[in-house]
Specification:
This protein is mostly helical. It contains 13 helices and four strands. A two-stranded antiparallel sheet has the order 1-2. It has a two-stranded antiparallel sheet with strand order 3-4.
């Protein structure tokens, strides 16, 4: 069946209406209409540490008050709240603080994630962090909690490496961020441990050297040539003799490769300059780094029930705060989509019935 231009225009308008309805629903159900920016900045829009700490304390107090009203609270009050309250408070502080640093995540991670100051963004990051949770063996053989790819890749922790690097050396380079100055060095990340464990351990290396039974002095690095002189045992080649994959490219492709290489270097330099300026303007460098380290300390040693409930508890904390502001507290994307499907189910059923009626009358 061919559609006329008029019918296509009607379909397009209907689709646009559905899209607008979906967008409005997502905004209402996820708290997009309420930003916490004003709650953590002064009249000039600048970061205010006192207001941020006050907001976090208010959110945690509302959550604690709700828990105290439950029958089971008296039995588990101390053990249940002691670690959770500090852990969740640190996470809220880190995420909200870093959300005021536009382009910071891109400059550090090279990813296009855009910072926002709405509670939906906060919960999206909490869910991502929660889903990365795994249990690994600690250095002393005990189990500990870890995010699979390390802490530094997650929003809120991503500025630790550049800030720590800056505080140590008073300079910064995005090329050196993924090193031992990170919260989780590459060789300690859960996703890389299997790879690194295949490397030869220092003790094994010593045993191999002993088994070989040969000790090479500096003299062994040379041999006597035909003229009775000493020549370097290693092949002494000219720089022009070095082969690279570029040698297989024609002149045009080689020029394009170098142009792309120069463009990448320019992007790195721009990222580095912006990130350096961001770090120099960042208020509370030591407080931020201390909060990161304390969170890692608590999260590693927490009981498995705490990482398991991490996202759900944060969602409850956010929902309680939004409810106090008379904002729909349904902040989870999956729940919002569930509501949207229910809204569409009735009209869709009616549309199908109406279509069958048209077909019946056309017979």
């Amino acid at each position: 069946m061919e559609l006329s231009k008029e019918k296509l225009e009607i379909y397009e308008k209907n689709l646009q209406s559905l899209q607008e309805a979906a967008d409005e629903l997502m905004r209402r159900m996820k708290g997009y209409d309420y930003s916490y920016r004003r709650e953590i900045t002064d009249r000039k829009g600048e970061y205010c540490p006192e207001k941020l700490h006050g907001l976090v304390e208010e959110m945690l107090s509302l959550w604690e008050e709700k828990l105290r009203s439950k029958p089971f609270f008296k039995c588990v009050a101390k053990s249940y709240l002691q670690v959770r309250r500090e852990l969740y408070g640190l996470y809220l502080y880190l995420t909200m603080r870093c959300s005021l640093c536009p382009e910071g995540y891109f400059c550090v991670r090279g990813s296009g994630q855009k910072e926002r100051t709405d509670f939906a963004f906060l919960l999206e990051q909490a869910k991502r962090f929660s889903r990365s949770w795994c249990i690994t063996d600690g250095p002393d053989g005990t189990s500990q909690n870890e995010p699979h790819g390390g802490y530094d890749e997650h929003f809120g922790f991503h500025l630790y490496s550049p800030i720590n690097h800056y505080l140590t050396f008073m300079e910064l380079s995005v090329r050196n961020l993924d090193d031992d100055w990170a919260l989780t060095p590459p060789h300690l990340r859960a996703g890389n441990r299997q790879f690194y464990s295949r490397a030869v351990e220092p003790e094994e290396t010593e045993q191999l050297e002993e088994a070989d039974g040969t000790d090479m002095d500096d003299e062994d690095l040379f041999y006597e040539d035909d003229d009775g002189g000493m020549a370097d045992a290693f092949y002494d080649f000219e720089e022009d003799d070095i082969w690279t994959p570029l040698d297989e490219l024609d002149e045009e492709d080689r020029a394009a490769w170098w142009e792309a290489e120069c463009e990448q270097q320019r992007e790195l330099e721009e990222r580095n300059m912006y990130l350096l300026q961001l770090v120099q303007r960042f208020e509370g460098l030591d407080e931020y780094c201390s909060a990161c380290r304390r969170f890692v300390e608590l999260f590693k040693e927490a009981g498995t029930e705490i990482p398991r409930d991490f996202f759900q508890d944060l969602e409850d904390i956010v929902n309680l705060y939004l409810a106090q502001r008379k904002i729909a507290p349904l902040a989870d994307t999956d729940k919002a989509l569930d509501v949207y499907s229910r809204i569409c189910e009735g009209p869709l059923r009616q549309a199908r019935s109406y279509g069958r009626g048209l077909q019946w009358r056309a017979l």
